[in-house]
Write a structure and sequence with these properties.
The structure holds 2 protein chains of 2 kinds. Chain A is mainly alpha-helical. In chain A, 83% of the residues lie in helices and 0% in strands. Chain A is globular. The two termini of chain B are 52 Å apart. In chain B, strands 2, 3, 4, 5, 6 and 7 form a 6-stranded mixed sheet that branches. Chain B has a two-stranded antiparallel sheet with strand order 1-8. Chain B is an alpha/beta fold. The longest helix of chain B has 28 residues. In chain B, helix 2 crosses helix 6. Chain B has 6 helices and 8 strands; from the N terminus they run H-E-E-H-E-H-H-H-E-E-E-E-H-E. Chain B is 34% helix and 35% strand. Classes of the chains: A mainly alpha, B alpha/beta. The interface between A and B is large, with 40 and 32 residues.
Amino acid sequence: MRLHVAVVGLSLLLLAASVSPARADARSAAKAEAQFGIDVAQRGLWREAIYRWERAIELDPTYAPAFNNLAVAYEHEGQLDKARQAYEKAIALEPQNVQIRQNYDLFKEINDRAVEDKDKP
Amino acid sequence: MTAPLKTKTSLRLACATVTALGALAVAACGTSYFEIPIETPIQPKLDVTPFQRVLIAGFVTGGTDDVDANQETVRLLRSQLRTKSTLKVIDADVMPLVSIAQDQQKTASTGDEGGVAPASDGDRPMALPEKIREEKDLEPYERLFANTAYWKRIGEEYQNPLIVTGTVLFTPHSRSGFVSRDVEQYDSFGRRRVVPVRTYLERKGFILRPKFVFIDGRTGATMHSESYREEVLYNSQQNTPALSSYFELMDRLVPNFLTALSSQKIRGTRVLLL
């Protein structure tokens, strides 16, 4: 009986893993774009990095790291509204991700200052 | 006897496989991260494109007599703007705004042209205190910045620059009370630990309250103004010169002042994920 339970459990796990090969493909393609984006960002090519991370999001709209990276790039380009939206999307996808939250907190410090400055009479 | 053993072995095998698959899944989902330095550009608060030049005119200053806050503030802001702004900084004598405001008041009371507008609704303007010791002493001087005719004339004299002026109050300050500080302690085994200890301290220092007023030299009208407050306290035994406290406090707020006129880049580090 126990053996049956174990075998059924194992089968379910394997089934779950192979439920959507298309989705797995999308994630791995998105990851490849994200990796390329990181490589070029490290060389200072932020525009190209943005293009790659936007592609990654098109390929897999549930891939939180791509939204996080895109937010960082927008921040670097001074596009603070876009950065906020991307961070919020990344956090919505992975609310427990400490690194995304840490990035967002640092971003908010700068953004709040910029907004405060704009609001001053 | 063999059958149950076989069952047990298969069960263990199944469990091991599930665990291995689980570990593989975690490894596959685990994110790599890369720290990267970034520079976020912050746009200036003011549109300074119509100006090629900036005149740091002078300040109405008060508080301690140990520091000439007018001279020091003008000198500091000019040197900062020379290196951190695209505007050409005009080298001119520092304007003694306290005496200028007092002269204007005298002129106004005799009914001559160019006098300051009254600060109160009544006919008689508020008297300008000779010595400025606290914030309320500065209030009557505020009307100087609203005197558009005067600032327009200054603007014409210097070919329509952006004019920076305002007030600076630099006052001594003391405070006593309980302060929490960390103290190292060693127990009987020689183990070190840090314990917060509350101690009563008498401290003294300074408060710096500048207000920067940005005036359009073409019209004499105020474009923007911003106020700050910074304070520093030292142990009462410590003898820190007023001038060094002044620079310590100005250092804290100069970056904010600069964001009014020029775009700044804020350096930081973020984490890229994969």
